[in-house]
Amino acid sequence: MKSLLDTDILSEVLKSKDVRVLARARAYLADHGAYSLSTITVMEVVKGLSRKSREDAISRFLSVVDVSDVMKLDKVSAELAGRIYADLERAGRDIGVADVLIAAIAIHHGMTLVTGNASDYVHIQEAGYALRIESWR
Question: Average pLDDT per run of 10 along the chain, which is 137 residues long?
């Protein structure tokens, strides 16, 4: 089954930060041929690198994006994200717009979300949404 990499996990993979994460990433790449990430993750990474004026790193990152399966925020995912966000707000569980958008994309496409940030995403599950979460750590 395909998985959507959350921004934190993709960053760890690109930085070769954690050997367990790298091993899982290599196995995933061998099985699926490409990483799957969202347009939201592209925005978050470029924003972070732009803040540091790291144009060289942005170019390297975009070369990874070019060979990845990039999942877009479409109408269905956007509507789902709006519903999730409203439910979380009513429950007093604001986790941020970017995470809600990424989760909605994963749910809409039937993908497992690979994240190191499960503590925020579990609130989406608690709100009754069928978000599958996995950790590569």
Answer: 96 92 96 97 97 94 96 98 98 95 98 96 97 96
Domain count, the chain: 1
CA distance 50 to 82: 28
Residues facing 23 on adjacent strands? none
Tell me the sheet residues that pair with 5: 114
**How confident is the model at residue 17, as a pLDDT?**
82
Measured CA to CA, the distance from residue 100 to residue 84 in angstroms comes to: 7
- Cα dist from 105 to 26, 65, 72, 75, 131, whole Å: 23, 17, 7, 10, 10
Domain containing residue 58: CATH number: 3.40.50.1010
